[in-house]
Amino acid sequence: MLKPSRQAYVPFVSVENMMRLVLHIGIEKMMVDLVTEIEADFKRWPLFDKTPRVASHSDIGVIELMPTSDGQTYGFKYVNGHPSNTKQGLQTVTAFGLLADVATGYPLMLSEMTILTALRTAATSAMAAKWLAPRDSKVMAMIGNGAQAEFQALAMKAVCGIEEVRLYDIDPAATAKCVRNLEGRGLNVVPCKTAEEAMQGAQIITTCTADKQYATILTDNMIGSGVHINAVGGDCPGKTELHKDILLRSDVFVEYPEQTRIEGEIQQMPADFPVTELWQVIAGQAEGRRDARQITLFDSVGFAIEDFSALRYVHSRLKDSGRYQDLDMIADPDEPRDLFGMVLRAQQSEVASPTKPASATAV
């Protein structure tokens, strides 16, 4: 039996290899690179297929598929969100993703995306702040110090020049974890006892909490003029973090309105509540920050194009890094129409020389 062709093997980036790749590139360098990739794709936003993610909701979480294509490459991400998982020692969010060639339909890469999603979410927040936050912002408040917090802080440092991050979480252990992880990374890290204390002097305020419920993490009286808010945690129906009066005082920017009106902070507002699409600001088609007293709010829910950008970036780094495995996952008969014959020949080969299935090998 002939060996499968090169196209039958799909590069697979495991968790181990993703961590090795991130450390090889450098966390902050990778954040900057991802912002560059996402901005480039936002500038060609009209080329992409766009649809709200396909979601299966339950009382305890959500499982979603996030697909898109630019006409040449197709990508999707599988991702879940189960806030109660941490009580069982499990991650709230897990993910994997795939790129495929539109011309043939053959997969180009399969990758873990739990780590990559954390990176691209933080990079997208920093990208939004780059365009919307007050000029020369130096202090960031991080409300919610879970798995995403360190990524957010380092992205803001690398992309926006943040020098101080003020941390608050209802669980002091989460804040202590974040303080430990950010030690020695060039930030002044200040643990705080209340959200109000965390926001003192902050030009950028990021909320990233996990409970799947309507919540009021920030009230209107907590927000002064001239700040930028990244609302990251509100990302599914019935889950918000901000009092709606904050939205009424803010200029709100979103990724894809059709999705954000279902999942974001603006699900609290009427269907005609005015928003600006962030891609339009980046492409020079809409105004971002106008003056020093303006409150800007990025109602971030995560969109498939950002995952597409992140997957393409990783794919572009594989050849030189060698940090992947080849998976034999595409049936590739010698004669394309003879798939059954391929199975029969495999049976004959097995009888002649029975062996255990070979495991994937690192390249």
TrEMBL record:
SUPFAM superfamilies per the UniProt record, alphabetical: NAD(P)-binding Rossmann-fold domains
GO MF annotation terms: oxidoreductase activity
GO-annotated biological processes: carboxylic acid metabolic process
Domain of life: Bacteria
Gene3D superfamilies: NAD(P)-binding Rossmann-like Domain, ornithine cyclodeaminase, domain 1
InterPro entries linked to this entry: NAD(P)-bd_dom_sf (IPR036291), ODC_Mu_crystall (IPR003462), ODC_N (IPR023401)
Family named by the database record: Belongs to the ornithine cyclodeaminase/mu-crystallin family.
Cited PANTHER family: KETIMINE REDUCTASE MU-CRYSTALLIN
UniProt name for this protein: Ornithine cyclodeaminase
